[in-house]
Amino acid sequence: EKMNTEDPSKLFGYTTDKNTPKHILKKIAIETIDFADDSYFLRTDDNKIKCKLCMTSHRSQSSYLAHTQGKRHLTNLSKRKIIDNTHQKTPSTKQRINLSTPSYTIWKFYDKESKQKVVLFRLKFNILPKETIPDFRIMTPYEQNIEQKDFNYQYILFSAHSYKTVAVKIPNQKINKNSIYTYSYWDIDKCNFFVSISIGDK
Protein backbone atom coordinates (compact mmCIF):
# COMPACT_ATOMS: atom_id res chain seq x y z
CA GLU A 1 0.00 0.00 0.00
CA LYS A 2 1.31 3.41 -0.99
CA MET A 3 1.98 5.78 1.97
CA ASN A 4 0.22 9.12 1.82
CA THR A 5 2.84 11.87 2.01
CA GLU A 6 0.44 14.78 1.57
CA ASP A 7 0.68 17.65 4.01
CA PRO A 8 -1.54 16.70 7.04
CA SER A 9 -2.68 20.30 7.39
CA LYS A 10 -4.39 20.01 3.99
CA LEU A 11 -5.95 16.66 4.90
CA PHE A 12 -7.64 18.00 8.03
CA GLY A 13 -8.57 21.42 6.67
CA TYR A 14 -6.18 23.70 8.54
CA THR A 15 -3.00 25.50 7.61
CA THR A 16 0.22 26.54 9.35
CA ASP A 17 0.70 29.45 6.99
CA LYS A 18 1.57 32.68 8.79
CA ASN A 19 -0.89 34.46 6.51
CA THR A 20 -3.89 32.97 8.34
CA PRO A 21 -6.41 35.46 9.73
CA LYS A 22 -5.11 34.85 13.27
CA HIS A 23 -1.52 35.72 12.37
CA ILE A 24 -2.60 38.64 10.21
CA LEU A 25 -4.64 40.14 13.08
CA LYS A 26 -1.71 39.68 15.49
CA LYS A 27 0.63 41.40 13.04
CA ILE A 28 -1.77 44.30 12.62
CA ALA A 29 -2.14 44.64 16.38
CA ILE A 30 1.64 44.79 16.93
CA GLU A 31 2.05 47.38 14.19
CA THR A 32 -0.80 49.60 15.38
CA ILE A 33 -0.44 49.39 19.18
CA ASP A 34 1.79 52.04 20.70
CA PHE A 35 3.54 50.26 23.56
CA ALA A 36 4.78 53.61 24.83
CA ASP A 37 1.26 54.21 26.12
CA ASP A 38 1.36 50.96 28.10
CA SER A 39 2.64 51.84 31.58
CA TYR A 40 3.42 48.19 32.30
CA PHE A 41 5.51 47.60 29.16
CA LEU A 42 9.26 47.73 29.79
CA ARG A 43 12.13 47.04 27.39
CA THR A 44 15.36 46.32 29.27
CA ASP A 45 18.94 47.15 28.27
CA ASP A 46 19.46 43.62 26.94
CA ASN A 47 16.43 44.11 24.64
CA LYS A 48 14.13 41.89 26.64
CA ILE A 49 10.52 42.80 27.30
CA LYS A 50 9.00 42.74 30.77
CA CYS A 51 5.55 43.27 32.24
CA LYS A 52 5.97 45.52 35.27
CA LEU A 53 2.54 44.57 36.59
CA CYS A 54 3.04 40.79 36.60
CA MET A 55 6.87 40.78 36.76
CA THR A 56 7.13 38.47 33.74
CA SER A 57 9.71 38.40 30.89
CA HIS A 58 8.90 38.03 27.19
CA ARG A 59 10.99 37.37 24.10
CA SER A 60 8.96 39.49 21.69
CA GLN A 61 6.19 42.04 21.44
CA SER A 62 3.78 39.38 20.21
CA SER A 63 4.53 37.29 23.29
CA TYR A 64 3.88 40.31 25.53
CA LEU A 65 0.68 41.09 23.63
CA ALA A 66 -0.57 37.54 24.17
CA HIS A 67 0.29 37.86 27.86
CA THR A 68 -1.82 41.02 28.23
CA GLN A 69 -4.86 39.03 27.08
CA GLY A 70 -4.18 36.19 29.51
CA LYS A 71 -5.88 35.40 32.81
CA ARG A 72 -2.91 36.38 34.99
CA HIS A 73 -2.52 39.87 33.53
CA LEU A 74 -6.26 40.59 33.47
CA THR A 75 -6.61 39.45 37.11
CA ASN A 76 -3.74 41.70 38.20
CA LEU A 77 -5.29 44.59 36.28
CA SER A 78 -8.54 44.12 38.20
CA LYS A 79 -6.68 44.07 41.52
CA ARG A 80 -4.74 47.18 40.56
CA LYS A 81 -7.95 48.98 39.61
CA ILE A 82 -9.44 48.23 43.04
CA ILE A 83 -6.33 49.59 44.78
CA ASP A 84 -6.32 52.76 42.64
CA ASN A 85 -10.01 53.37 43.31
CA THR A 86 -9.43 52.96 47.06
CA HIS A 87 -6.59 55.50 47.00
CA GLN A 88 -8.76 57.95 45.07
CA LYS A 89 -11.48 57.75 47.73
CA THR A 90 -9.10 58.17 50.66
CA PRO A 91 -8.47 61.97 50.34
CA SER A 92 -12.17 62.79 50.54
CA THR A 93 -12.46 60.67 53.71
CA LYS A 94 -9.47 62.39 55.26
CA GLN A 95 -10.83 65.78 54.30
CA ARG A 96 -14.00 65.16 56.30
CA ILE A 97 -12.03 64.58 59.51
CA ASN A 98 -9.28 67.09 58.80
CA LEU A 99 -8.14 69.12 61.82
CA SER A 100 -10.58 67.52 64.24
CA THR A 101 -9.68 67.57 67.93
CA PRO A 102 -9.94 64.25 69.80
CA SER A 103 -11.71 64.27 73.12
CA TYR A 104 -9.60 63.14 76.05
CA THR A 105 -9.86 62.13 79.70
CA ILE A 106 -7.11 62.21 82.35
CA TRP A 107 -6.85 60.12 85.52
CA LYS A 108 -4.22 60.58 88.24
CA PHE A 109 -3.33 58.23 91.06
CA TYR A 110 -0.47 57.40 93.41
CA ASP A 111 1.17 54.01 93.96
CA LYS A 112 2.19 53.90 97.63
CA GLU A 113 4.37 50.82 97.25
CA SER A 114 6.61 52.20 94.50
CA LYS A 115 5.98 55.85 95.44
CA GLN A 116 5.26 56.72 91.84
CA LYS A 117 2.79 59.20 90.44
CA VAL A 118 0.80 57.71 87.58
CA VAL A 119 -1.10 59.64 84.93
CA LEU A 120 -3.42 57.82 82.54
CA PHE A 121 -4.70 59.47 79.36
CA ARG A 122 -7.50 58.26 77.12
CA LEU A 123 -7.98 59.95 73.74
CA LYS A 124 -11.10 59.25 71.73
CA PHE A 125 -10.95 59.47 67.93
CA ASN A 126 -14.08 59.45 65.77
CA ILE A 127 -12.62 58.16 62.50
CA LEU A 128 -9.16 56.86 61.65
CA PRO A 129 -7.98 54.70 58.74
CA LYS A 130 -7.22 51.12 59.83
CA GLU A 131 -3.51 51.45 59.09
CA THR A 132 -3.20 54.63 61.21
CA ILE A 133 -2.02 54.37 64.82
CA PRO A 134 -1.88 57.46 67.08
CA ASP A 135 1.43 58.37 68.69
CA PHE A 136 2.76 60.43 71.58
CA ARG A 137 6.01 62.02 72.68
CA ILE A 138 7.42 64.11 75.53
CA MET A 139 8.36 67.71 74.76
CA THR A 140 10.66 69.83 76.94
CA PRO A 141 9.89 73.48 77.83
CA TYR A 142 12.73 74.56 75.51
CA GLU A 143 10.86 73.25 72.45
CA GLN A 144 7.71 75.34 72.75
CA ASN A 145 7.23 79.04 72.02
CA ILE A 146 3.50 79.37 72.67
CA GLU A 147 3.55 79.86 76.44
CA GLN A 148 6.06 81.46 78.76
CA LYS A 149 8.62 78.84 79.63
CA ASP A 150 8.00 77.21 82.99
CA PHE A 151 10.68 74.68 83.80
CA ASN A 152 8.53 73.07 86.46
CA TYR A 153 6.56 71.43 83.67
CA GLN A 154 7.10 69.43 80.51
CA TYR A 155 4.54 68.46 77.88
CA ILE A 156 3.13 65.23 76.54
CA LEU A 157 1.94 65.50 72.93
CA PHE A 158 -0.63 63.22 71.27
CA SER A 159 -0.93 63.14 67.49
CA ALA A 160 -2.79 61.27 64.77
CA HIS A 161 -3.15 61.82 61.05
CA SER A 162 -5.73 64.54 60.19
CA TYR A 163 -6.22 65.45 63.84
CA LYS A 164 -4.97 68.43 65.81
CA THR A 165 -2.10 67.68 68.16
CA VAL A 166 -3.12 67.70 71.82
CA ALA A 167 -0.55 68.95 74.37
CA VAL A 168 -0.92 68.44 78.12
CA LYS A 169 1.33 69.81 80.88
CA ILE A 170 2.86 67.27 83.26
CA PRO A 171 5.43 67.71 86.08
CA ASN A 172 8.96 68.10 84.80
CA GLN A 173 10.21 64.94 86.48
CA LYS A 174 11.83 61.76 85.27
CA ILE A 175 9.50 59.33 83.49
CA ASN A 176 10.08 55.74 84.53
CA LYS A 177 10.09 53.99 81.15
CA ASN A 178 10.65 50.55 82.73
CA SER A 179 7.67 50.84 85.08
CA ILE A 180 4.63 48.61 84.60
CA TYR A 181 2.59 51.80 84.68
CA THR A 182 4.30 53.24 81.60
CA TYR A 183 2.71 51.89 78.45
CA SER A 184 0.49 52.76 75.48
CA TYR A 185 -2.39 50.82 73.96
CA TRP A 186 -4.43 51.42 70.81
CA ASP A 187 -7.97 49.99 70.90
CA ILE A 188 -8.64 49.84 67.16
CA ASP A 189 -12.26 48.69 67.56
CA LYS A 190 -13.35 51.63 69.73
CA CYS A 191 -10.73 54.13 68.47
CA ASN A 192 -9.46 54.74 72.00
CA PHE A 193 -5.78 55.53 72.56
CA PHE A 194 -4.52 54.89 76.10
CA VAL A 195 -1.21 56.24 77.37
CA SER A 196 -0.02 55.74 80.93
CA ILE A 197 3.15 57.28 82.35
CA SER A 198 4.82 56.80 85.70
CA ILE A 199 6.61 59.77 87.26
CA GLY A 200 8.94 59.37 90.19
CA ASP A 201 12.47 58.70 91.39
CA LYS A 202 12.47 54.95 90.73
**Approximately what portion of the residues adopt beta-strand conformation?**
25-35%
The DSSP helix count reads 4
Number of strands: 10
Q: From N to C, what is the helix and strand string?
A: HHEEEHHEEEEEEE
From the alpha carbons, calculate the radius of gyration and give it in angstroms. Answer: 33 Å
Q: How far is the N terminus from the C terminus?
A: 107 Å
Widest sheet: strand order? 4-5-10-9
Low-confidence stretches: 1-15, 90-98
Helical content band:
10-25%
Secondary structure category: alpha+beta
Mean pLDDT, all residues? 78
- Overall form: elongated
What is the makeup of the main sheet? Answer: 4 strands, antiparallel
Characterize the structure shown.
The chain is α+β, with helices and mostly antiparallel strands and 202 residues long. The chain contains four helices and ten strands; from the N terminus they run H-H-E-E-E-H-H-E-E-E-E-E-E-E. Strands 4-5-10-9 form a four-stranded antiparallel beta sheet, with no helix packed on it. A three-stranded antiparallel beta sheet has the order 1-2-3. A three-stranded antiparallel beta sheet has the order 6-7-8, with no helix packed on it. The longest helix is centred in the middle third of the chain and has 26 residues. The protein is elongated, with a radius of gyration of 33 Å.
